[in-house]
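Troubleshooting entry. Yesterday's outputs looked truncated, so today I'm pasting the complete records for two proteins to confirm everything comes through intact. If either block looks cut off, that's the bug. Protein one:
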Amino acid sequence: MERISVFGYGTTTRPIVKLLNTQGIVCAIFDDVFKQASHDQEGNALLPSSWFDPQTSDLEILSPGIPPSHPLLQKAKHPISEYDYFYDQFSPEYNPQSIWISGTNGKTTTTEMLTLLLKDQGAKSGGNIGTPLAELYRQKPPLWVLETSSFTLHYTHRAYPTFYLLLPVREDHISWHTSFEAYVQAKLKPLLIMQQDTFALLPQEFAHRYEAKNFLGKAFYYQDIQTLAQDVGVDTHALHFKGPFLLDALLALQAAKIFSSRIDTTLLNTFKIGQHRMEEFHDSKGRLWVDDSKGTNVDATLEALKSYADKKIFLILGGDDKGADLRPIFELARGLDIEIFAIGSNEEKLCVLAREYACVLHPCAELKNAVNAIKERLGRDGVGLLSPAAASLDQFSSYKERGELFCQYVTEEE
């Protein structure tokens, strides 16, 4: 029997282990959180990462968040992404079509929008959101719509989609990929694997790239909201979305048009934007607050700032910025009426940039301190904005917890 190791025991790999167990396969699971050897109820070994021995493993299924620099990857002889693993499981009896959606911002919204538009074709979303791939494989829907991270693409070498939709690519995850160029290469990698009779919808700026020129399928390009709306054939005023969500909506419509030769703006207008993404609410004094906790990179925060450029902005910024260059935020801030409230592990970095750009910044260390400081200053003509341009794991379990606590701190003691 094949000896399967699993690297990282998280959201994507737990369902795979469960599926393998139903097939009578017991796994060896390696994770940094395990400090000593143990077993779970199914008999899977739970082992510290340092215990991995490549001589006892025939296949290593990776959790996508594990960076290439991790010692486990230095030892692995047969590493495989979950995308490649399930690609190898497909057969003439079950070989679903798939749409992969990647990019820097808007992946979740666009994936959910496109799944809605293609629901009559049996579309079901998964990947980073929705149903885990192991569960999709068990349920066997005819169309997989997968939110796909650059981490997964980095590790995927054989699997490819029927349709690849790439949203704009901006600087993110630099510490993981080591450079912006490596990040871009990961985003464009599917083009080098996809075969004929496949399709891609890509930013115009990548048309000159080696990956695009060597793509065997049919590529469509987009440049901006105006030209994209013309290509789709819709009036943007007919859509109930604004800001970055309008681009997401148009890309979902264009993808549906290419994939199924039809669009449905009425159906799309029923879509509700998810929590913690430019989510507006008011406190008991009628003051505007915005939960953009999912704004985990520079480009997302820039879009949020532009959306409220006509107001006095009290911005909560900071966390694990993943090595990104934050200067564009401060360059934009110089032209706005803004005060910055710094939190998280990169607070000192933010303070240095604020001095360099002569921006008003208040070191707050923690989210609650920042919210309370804003409460003392915010008027009804301003906005309290949480758009941290950083991941949350330095102080929170997730961006969701960060957003929920933000809302709690805003509304308490009023």
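Protein two, checking that the full record survives here as well:
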Amino acid sequence: MENKEFLEELSNYTGISGGEKKISKVIKDILSNFTDEIKTDTLGNLITLKKGEGSSADKPKIMLAAHMDEIGLMVKDIDDDGFIKFTTVGGIDQRTLIGQEVSVYGKEVVSGIIGAKPPHVQNKKERNRAIKVKDMHIDVGRGEKEVKDLISVGDLVVTEREFSELDGNRVTGKALDDRAGVTVMLECLKELQRLYHEADLYSVATVQEEVGVRGATTSTYNIVPDIGIVIDVGHGKMPGTSDEDTAELGDGSVIVLGPQVHPKLHEKLKETAEEYDIPYQINAETTPRGTDAFAVQVARSGIPTALISIPLRYMHTSVETLDLTDIKQAGRLLANFVSQIDSEFVEGLRCF
């Protein structure tokens, strides 16, 4: 499967944090073609293993991690007129919610829209501020009894948005954060079909990143890798953003530098990119929080960790936008990095 088709399928599927079962099956069906072992753990992480060709006694273990969950909504209440009150699952930009089409996953999938009091009937104070989630509602066009027969408190709600292509290699859709990272793992595994690698490679599609990096915490504790590399998205350049906080779409993935990144891994990734003429960018991130890298780094007694990010515009909206070229180049970078890792390199990570 080509990267674009895989990413499109992932984007169009629903997998809100805590409800990743369906998206996990899609990923499993594809990654199983490129790995030797695949399993789902108790929390729901999808863990694959591609065995290396080194001796069993001292083969390094490398873990790639990209989260498969997405932000979404959850039903909080149903009023006497059948309007649904909701809360957020993960960090949603509430300014983008008004007027969105949604699907409510109750006893059956129910279509609806997000509405709020229009400006015509707002008072002056209300017109001068953003509408909050508590003042919004989902309208499914049905009365109270019918709504309550189909929908219950706790049901998940997802914004309806079809993946689509823009000019060039740009695409847009929901949940590209971080289905793009999962697609990078697929590209890496495809590249490794033609490369020798000594290390065992674990590729993990983690759950519940958007609500506290929970899946990465448990899967890293289980695998205990010698090296952990997290693939996520970072902010792409757009009007109104600063150069130091963003990266150009199409200029390669970002090799992040910061306290959550082991300096020798950072240097090795840069050396690999330069050796194989793979474009890359550098961004400094001073806080380890916000991605699975935080969880991987502090697992057990500590794991040498690196972070690769794909430039993405309009993060945490239903129109996230990226360049497919960056996904392909990130996959090439990781595959060639994995092919160069041996026990001697891993031993050197313990010496600063």
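Both blocks look complete. Sanity check on protein two: The chain has ten helices and 17 strands.
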